[in-house]
Write a structure and sequence with these properties.
27 strands, 7-stranded antiparallel sheet, alpha+beta, about 625 residues, 10-stranded mixed sheet
Length: about 625
């Protein structure tokens, strides 16, 4: 058995051990995100806070005001413990009604709830904390006094800023300065809190944020009811997945062997090798008089055709639906290679390239077949494949959601746009989670302390998410890459040029492409006068109307001058919030800002090799040699 197989079986044994103890069984048997309090009524509240010194690096800003919105109105709490006071009020209000307090805050797990976390950990009798990335998605548990709490961050349910959400509802955010400005007229929290009129404006600002989130949650709940989802879950993706599963008969629900028993092949795990992200490449750095084209809802469009769903078994030929592991050869004179390759190690480990040459890899069947049909690749030998029966299980959700989006306006349109693209992520959901609990003094076998001085214990949990079926996700991204390359080949055939690929977008010149309003049609996003594509997800362009757009993934908004300096190699310094996991690992629970320096955002080795004014594909030997 190879190292990968041994690792998977170790995970399986660990999974069985977890299922034997009470905490592990509760985590595995309950809602897969640990987000729902089953069979328990909740009273909904919305929290928003305002702080002084938000942008000051190295320290925690001082709380000034916390507003709590509920069905009957909005309560305000002032002072250095405003968040705690607001949460206590909500807890008592819910307890009086015999309910659990369900408190929502937008980016609450990264900001608002952080001001109450030390108090919560000190007072909680039991608690479970669910983290996603750098935020606390949910904290659920019970205080020693018996009051029950359920704190939820709405950022994964409504993935946008409150300003954008409010604008979609014609309920704009009110104006306020985030940082102190010298001179009269500053409306930062520090200055506003000094006068009665300022405090009135500050409260109105905070209450408006609460109102935006309160109405957005109510509207989202009504839209979810249209697709059979009752109540609110903590992520939009889990809502979409539940809607699909609830409409399928048990025999229609896909199942992929994932190593639950010794000797059963982990096909789902092997399919990960054939799962690649979107195609993001710089073909030419400098561009003039170009157009930017988007494939309308490309991932949603990929759900319309039958997708691999129920596992059939291994095979020796290339299946219609599934994936294959084989030796492929891509001709060295290919300008736009069709097949992806993932770097196995080194400084660019995990990075995706589209090289020429010969290598052995795993590929989604549809992408491999498209490459062969267009002469972009051929199979040399050694096909080891797995086949699936196709299903249109996702088509109904895609079509209904698209129809709702086209007919909707305002917030409803905003909502359907985001829930449609969220479903893909659940098919490739990771099987390893981290469960964090408050140390209640009982047996914590298998847990490790998060950091010295914190009553938090953590341990990994391995399980099979209900909706995970990696070959489905792999096929969706493969179809999008095939469609993107097909449009690019059309441009080249008409004598045009390609400058940039970005998942479902391409920037071209010299060819006019057809547009349409249906799923999968092209949409011209911009007519560009000049552009510079420095690296994937790092570019700037100016439209013919004079609008300047600058993007640099992982960095704050940059001025054209700052972008040029960054592209030339100057370091970029900016501030960010310290992530909750980062804080906990360092023994802290309080919110604080940190300064970050990024030196040269440009990639060390481009996705393509330089070739005069343009680029060419790397050969596989060049990539392996590290040149």
């Amino acid at each position: 058995m190879g190292d990968r197989g041994a690792d998977l079986h170790r995970r399986d044994r660990r999974r069985a051990e977890l299922a034997d103890d009470e905490a592990g069984a509760a985590f595995l048997a309950g809602n897969r995100e640990g987000t729902e309090a089953q069979g328990e009524a909740s009273a909904r509240f919305v929290l928003d806070i305002e702080t002084e010194g938000f942008g000051e690096v190295g320290g925690a800003p001082r709380q000034v005001l916390a507003c709590v919105r509920w069905q009957g109105g909005c309560e305000a709490f002032w002072g250095s413990r405003a968040t705690v006071a607001g949460l206590r009020w909500a807890l008592r209000k819910a307890e009086a009604e015999g309910k659990r307090a369900q408190v929502w805050a937008h980016y609450g797990g990264g900001f608002d709830f952080r001001f109450a976390l030390p108090w919560l950990l000190k007072k909680a009798r039991k608690a479970r904390i669910v983290t996603v990335g750098s935020i606390v998605l949910q904290a659920i548990g019970e205080f020693k006094s018996g009051e029950r709490f359920d704190l939820r961050d709405s950022i994964r349910l409504l993935p946008a800023g409150l300003g954008e959400i409010g604008a979609a509802m014609d309920l704009p955010k009110l104006g306020q300065d985030m940082q102190h400005r010298k001179g009269r007229g500053c409306r930062c929290v520090r200055c506003e809190a000094k006068s009665a009129a300022g405090r009135k404006r500050l409260r109105a600002y905070c209450e408006r944020d609460c109102e935006i989130l309160w109405q957005a949650l109510a509207k989202a709940e009504r839209q979810l009811a249209k697709v059979g989802v009752e109540g609110l879950r903590t992520t939009l993706a889990s809502c979409a997945a539940y809607s699909v599963r609830s409409r399928l008969a048990p025999e229609e629900q896909g199942y992929t062997p994932h190593g639950e028993r010794r000797g059963v092949a982990d096909v789902d795990g092997e399919a990960e090798r054939a799962n690649f992200g979107g195609r993001v490449e710089v073909i030419r750095e400098h561009a003039a008089d170009t157009a930017s084209w988007d494939i309308r809802s490309a991932y949603v469009h990929a759900m319309l055709a039958p997708l691999p769903w129920r596992y059939k078994g291994p095979c020796r030929d290339l299946p219609a639906h599934g994936f294959a592991v084989c030796d492929v050869e891509v001709p060295e004179d290919t300008y736009l290679p069709a097949l992806p390759w993932r770097s196995p190690g080194g400084p660019d480990a995990g990075r995706i390239y589209f090289p020429t040459g010969r290598w052995r890899g795993a590929f989604a069947a549809e992408e491999l077949r498209a490459a062969i049909d267009t002469g972009a690749a051929r199979i040399n030998r050694g096909v080891s494949a797995h086949a699936w029966e196709p299903s249109t299980a996702l088509r109904d959700f895609a079509e209904r959601g698209w129809a709702e989006r086209r007919a909707a306006v305002g917030f409803d349109r905003f909502f359907w746009k985001r829930i449609l693209v969220s479903l893909y992520g659940k098919t490739v959901e990771q099987r390893e989670k981290e469960m964090i609990c408050v140390d209640d003094g009982r047996s914590m076998a298998g847990y490790t302390r998060v950091a010295r001085g914190l009553p938090l214990m953590a341990r990994p949990v391995y399980y099979q998410p209900k909706f995970r079926n990696v070959i489905v996700g792999a096929s969706i991204t493969a179809r999008t890459r095939v469609a993107l390359r097909a449009w690019a080949l059309r441009v080249l055939a008409e004598g045009g040029r390609i400058y940039y690929f970005d998942t479902d977008n391409l920037v071209t010149s010299g060819a006019e492409l057809p547009t349409g309003d249906e799923l999968g049609d092209l949409d011209c996003q911009a007519r560009i006068a000049s552009a510079r594509f420095v690296a994937p997800k790092c570019y700037t362009y100016t439209t013919h109307e004079g609008k300047i757009v600058t993007r640099a993934k992982g960095l704050p908004s940059l001025s054209p001058e700052a972008f040029a300096a960054m592209a030339a190699g100057d370091p970029v310094r900016f501030e960010r919030s310290e992530g909750i996991r980062e804080s906990m690992r360092n023994g802290r629970t309080k919110y604080r800002r940190v300064e970050v320096t990024r030196s040269r955002h440009v990639e060390r080795r481009g996705k393509r090799a330089p070739d005069g004014e343009g680029t060419r594909p790397w050969t596989i030997s060049e990539l392996l040699d590290g040149r």
